[in-house]
Design a protein that fits this description.
Number of domains: 1
Order of helices and strands: EHEHEHEHEHEEHHEHE
Radius of gyration: 18 Å
CATH class: Alpha Beta
Distance between the termini: 44 Å
Strand content: 15-25%
Helix content: 40-55%
Number of helices: 8
Strand order of the largest sheet: 3-2-1-4-5-6-9
Shape: globular
CATH topology: Rossmann fold
């Protein structure tokens, strides 16, 4: 049996149709996990489901959900449990990005729109995960893994993105609290912080070459991240291999954060 074996486990990711959310599910599917894909856009549901099954996912379940809708998140978790029987790992990943010209130009509507997704949507997701995992534990089925997607903006000052960084920093604090609260139930909580990761959202842009060169120059490993770089950490955090790691922040950035200068 593989150290990262996920056979029989169910991994759920919000924003799971693409990008880092899908990469997280791919890493878990390769280890035999069943996947629950929650996303507001289900246009690629059939293709993504087939892809995850081809990688080794036991079963794949898709729920169309906007994480800013509290009731919809609860319904999606209920639907997932009804379809797959349980949820062992939750990756609160759905998020948007926005940059204002400056803090004084940050429009209140844009501020609230970003927090609605990146913080409040993550809260609804994590709360649903906690409710499910506590209920399982009280029935004698302890354990689970809660993971939130963070950002290097927690550590670096980004002009015009103070609202984005604030949401991620608040989420990091929430994860620390959950690690303490959920420990007695055998559930661990951690944050995964990707560095600059090339996704389909950036690959087709004309300035991609310049972006790659810039981030390669400031990254000790000499390149930006790829989606496949998320798969190993995902399998680790979802599996029993990480059973004693909780309340932590796992940075996957090629060494960029610790680079001097």
């Amino acid at each position: 049996m593989s150290l990262f074996d996920l056979t029989g486990k169910v991994v759920l990711a919000t924003g799971g149709m693409s990008g880092i959310g899908l990469a997280f599910l791919q890493g878990c599917a390769r280890q035999g996990a069943s996947a629950a894909v929650l996303d507001r856009d289900a246009a690629k549901a059939d293709a993504v489901s087939s892809h995850l099954r081809s990688l080794g996912a036991g079963r794949v379940h898709v729920e169309t959900v906007d994480v800013t809708d509290e009731a919809a998140v609860e319904a999606a978790f209920t639907g997932t449990v009804a379809a797959l029987g349980r949820i062992d790992c939750v990756f609160a990943n759905a998020g948007i990005s926005h940059r204002a010209p400056g803090f004084d130009d940050l429009d209140s509507a844009d501020y609230h729109r970003l927090l609605d997704v990146n913080l409040h949507g993550a809260f609804y997701t994590l709360r649903a995960a906690v409710r499910h995992m506590k209920a399982r534990a009280r029935q004698g089925d302890r354990g689970g893994s809660i993971v939130a997607c963070g950002s290097l903006s927690i550590y670096h000052g980004l002009p015009g993105m103070e609202h984005y960084a604030a949401a991620k920093a608040a989420l990091q604090a929430m994860i620390k609290g959950l690690a303490v609260e959920m420990g007695p139930f055998g559930v661990r909580a951690n944050m995964l912080v990707p560095g600059f990761i090339l996704t389909g959202l950036t690959d087709d842009k004309p300035e991609t070459k310049q972006i790659i060169e810039r981030f390669s120059a400031i990254t000790p490993l000499g390149r930006p991240g790829e989606l496949s770089d998320i798969e190993g950490p995902a399998a680790y955090l979802a599996s029993d291999a990480s059973r004693f790691q909780s309340g932590d922040t796992l940075v996957i950035d090629g060494g960029r954060l610790v680079r001097n200068g």
